[in-house]
C-alpha cells in the first residue's frame, strides 16, 4: 500500500468513489459519523450506492441527506428505525431502497472479518431467529451458530479525532465505534479528522488505527454536529 | 386481568438492582432497564458496559457535561467514571459474545416458558424492523434478565407458552422481572420467586404458563 495522502478538501478526499460502490460509513448515530465526507459524496453525485453503517441516518445531515436524495440503493445496518430517521423511513416506505438488517455484533464482526482476511465465521447471535432465515447453521458443542460472511467496502468513510501526517489515527470516546474496523475493511479508506499533527506527535502506544489502513486524510472543522444542529 | 396493579417502574428497577452482585460487569438495555443504574449503590463496584464501545459508563450527562462523542447505546449523552475504557465495535461485541459480561437486562415484548425472548420486532408488515444489539446481547451475556410489565396494554400476558412475535434469541432468558412477580426460568419449569400486590393463585389464573410457587430459601 502507498502512503496516505493528506488532502485539502472533502471533495478531493471522496473523489473517484463510483456509482454502485459499497461504502462503509462509520458512526453510531451522529457520534463518529463523517458528516462532511458523506455530504461531499452527495455533492459529487455518486448514486446507486450500497451503504454499510450501524444506522440509516439521523436528522437531516450526513447519511440522512444521502438517503433523502435517493443515492442509496441498499443499506446494510442494524438499527435503521429511530426517532430522527425520517428520511430513511420515507425512503423505505416508498420502496426506494433495500434493507439488509444484521444484528449489531454480527455487523461489526463481518466488517472485522473483511479486514482480517477471514472467509466466514460461525456466530451464535441470531440463531433460531428470522434474521438467520436461509443461512447455513451448525451446532457446535451443543450450541447453535449461524454462518456469516465478511462485508468488504470499495470505500470507507470514517471520522477520527487526530491523524498524523502518515495517517495514523486516534479517536475520541465512543466516537471510535466502527472506525478502526471499517478502516481495515475497505479498498480505499477516507478519514476526516479534527487535527493533523506531525509524525511522531502521537504516542505510538496510543495509536488505534495504524496508517497502513488509511489512504486519504482531510481535516475538517467538525461543526455540523457539535454546533448543536443535531436534529 | 388488567385490573391488577403491581409495583411501579422505579420500584421494579430497585428490585433488579438488588439482584446484581457487587463487582459485576453489566449491560442495561435501552428503555426500562436503563433505570436500574439509578439504584445500584455507588460502592457496589458494578461496571456498566455500553455496546457502542465503553466500559465504566457513568450517569447521563447534564449541561456542560454533554459531549456528542460520548453517548450510550440509546444515543443519550452520558459520562465516564474513573477507570472507564473505550474500544471499537468488534471488540465490544466480542466482549459480550465471549461471555465476559455477567448480566444483561433487556426489555421484552414476550418471554416464553423456556426462556425464548422476543423484543425486536412486532412482525407487522408496515413496521420498520430494527434489531441493534438485542440478539447479540441475548445470546452473549452469561445471564439474560428480561424486564417488562407482565400484561400488555390490552391485558394480555407477555409471559407465554410460545412467543408469537419474531424471536430475538432461543432459551436465553433466565429471569423475568415484572410489575407483578419475579419469575425464574428453569430447565423444566417456571418458578415464581416473588409476588407484588397479587397472590399466587390469582397470578396463576392470569397466565397460560404453568407456575411453581417457590418454597424455602430464596434461590437467586
Report on the architecture of this protein.
The complex is a heterodimer of chains A (231) and B (220). By secondary structure, chain A is of the alpha/beta class. Chain A has one domain (5-120, 151-219): Glutaconate Coenzyme A-transferase. Chain A has helices at residues 10-13, 35-44, 63-68, 86-93, 104-116, 179-185; strands spanning 5-7, 22-25, 49-52, 72-77, 98-101, 121-123, 137-140, 143-148, 153-164, 169-170, 186-197, 216-219. In chain A, the strands form 2 sheets. In chain A, strands 1, 2, 3, 4, 5, 9, 10, 11 and 12 form a 9-stranded mixed sheet that branches. In chain A, helix 5 packs across helix 6 (179-185). The radius of gyration of chain A is 17 Å and the shape is globular. Chain A starts with a strand and ends in a 12-residue tail after the last strand. Mean pLDDT of chain A is 95; it is low at 224-231. Chain B is an alpha/beta fold. Chain B has a single domain (9-213), classed as Glutaconate Coenzyme A-transferase, CATH 3.40.1080.10. In chain B, 15% of the residues lie in helices and 29% in strands. Chain B has helices at 9-18, 89-97, 134-140, 200-206, and strands spanning 25-28, 47-50, 54-60, 78-86, 103-107, 110-112, 117-118, 143-148, 159-160, 173-178, 181-186, 189-195, 212-213. In chain B, the strands form 2 sheets. A 10-stranded mixed sheet of chain B has the order 4-3-2-1-5-8-10-11-12-13, with helices on both faces. A 3-stranded mixed sheet of chain B has the order 7-6-9, with no helix packed on it. In chain B, a hairpin with a 2-residue loop joins strand 11 and strand 12. Chain B starts with 8 loop residues before the first helix and ends in a 7-residue tail after the last strand. The chains are: A alpha/beta (231), B alpha/beta (220). Chains A and B meet through helix 4, helix 5 and helix 6 of A and helix 2 and helix 3 of B.
Amino acid at each position: 500500500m502507498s502512503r496516505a495522502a493528506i488532502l485539502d478538501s472533502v471533495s478531493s478526499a471522496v473523489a473517484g468513489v463510483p456509482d454502485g460502490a459499497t461504502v462503509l460509513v462509520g458512526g453510531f448515530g451522529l457520534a463518529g459519523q463523517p458528516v462532511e465526507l458523506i455530504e461531499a459524496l452527495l455533492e459529487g453525485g455518486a448514486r446507486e450506492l450500497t451503504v454499510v453503517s450501524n444506522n440509516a441516518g439521523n436528522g437531516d445531515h450526513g447519511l440522512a441527506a444521502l438517503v433523502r436524495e435517493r443515492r442509496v440503493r441498499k443499506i446494510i445496518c442494524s438499527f435503521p428505525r429511530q426517532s430522527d430517521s425520517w428520511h430513511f423511513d420515507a425512503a423505505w416506505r416508498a420502496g426506494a431502497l433495500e434493507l439488509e438488517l444484521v444484528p449489531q455484533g454480527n455487523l461489526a464482526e463481518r466488517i472485522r472479518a473483511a479486514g482480517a482476511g477471514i472467509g466466514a465465521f460461525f456466530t451464535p447471535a441470531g440463531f433460531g431467529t428470522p434474521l438467520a432465515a436461509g443461512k447455513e447453521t451448525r451446532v457446535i458443542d451443543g450450541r447453535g451458530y449461524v454462518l456469516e460472511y465478511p462485508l468488504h467496502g470499495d470505500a470507507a468513510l470514517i471520522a477520527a479525532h487526530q491523524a498524523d501526517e502518515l495517517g495514523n489515527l486516534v479517536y475520541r470516546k465512543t466516537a471510535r465505534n466502527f472506525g478502526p474496523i471499517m478502516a481495515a475493511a475497505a479498498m480505499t479508506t477516507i478519514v476526516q479528522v479534527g487535527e493533523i499533527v506531525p509524525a511522531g506527535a502521537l504516542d505510538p502506544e496510543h495509536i488505534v488505527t495504524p496508517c497502513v489502513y488509511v489512504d486519504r486524510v482531510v481535516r475538517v472543522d467538525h461543526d455540523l454536529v457539535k454546533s448543536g444542529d443535531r436534529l | 386481568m388488567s385490573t391488577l396493579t403491581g409495583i411501579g417502574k422505579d420500584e421494579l428497577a430497585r428490585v433488579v438492582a438488588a439482584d446484581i452482585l457487587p463487582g459485576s460487569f453489566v449491560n442495561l438495555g435501552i428503555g426500562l432497564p436503563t433505570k436500574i443504574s439509578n439504584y445500584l449503590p455507588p460502592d457496589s463496584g458494578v461496571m456498566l458496559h455500553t455496546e457502542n464501545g465503553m466500559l465504566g459508563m457513568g450517569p447521563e450527562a447534564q449541561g456542560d457535561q454533554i459531549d456528542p462523542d460520548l453517548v450510550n447505546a440509546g444515543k443519550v449523552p452520558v459520562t465516564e467514571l474513573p477507570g472507564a475504557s473505550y474500544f471499537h465495535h468488534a471488540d465490544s461485541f466480542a466482549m459480550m459474545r465471549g461471555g465476559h459480561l455477567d448480566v444483561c437486562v433487556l426489555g421484552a415484548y414476550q418471554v416464553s416458558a423456556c426462556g425464548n425472548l422476543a423484543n425486536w420486532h412486532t412482525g407487522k408488515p408496515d413496521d420498520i424492523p430494527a434489531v441493534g444489539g438485542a440478539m447479540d446481547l441475548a445470546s452473549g451475556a452469561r445471564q439474560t434478565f428480561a424486564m417488562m410489565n407482565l400484561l400488555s396494554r390490552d391485558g394480555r400476558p407477555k409471559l407465554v407458552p410460545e412467543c408469537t412475535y419474531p424471536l430475538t434469541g432461543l432459551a436465553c432468558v433466565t429471569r423475568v422481572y415484572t410489575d407483578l412477580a419475579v419469575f425464574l426460568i428453569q430447565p423444566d419449569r417456571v418458578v415464581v420467586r416473588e409476588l407484588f400486590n397479587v397472590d399466587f393463585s390469582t397470578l396463576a389464573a392470569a397466565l397460560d404458563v404453568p407456575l411453581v410457587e417457590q418454597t424455602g430459601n430464596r434461590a437467586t
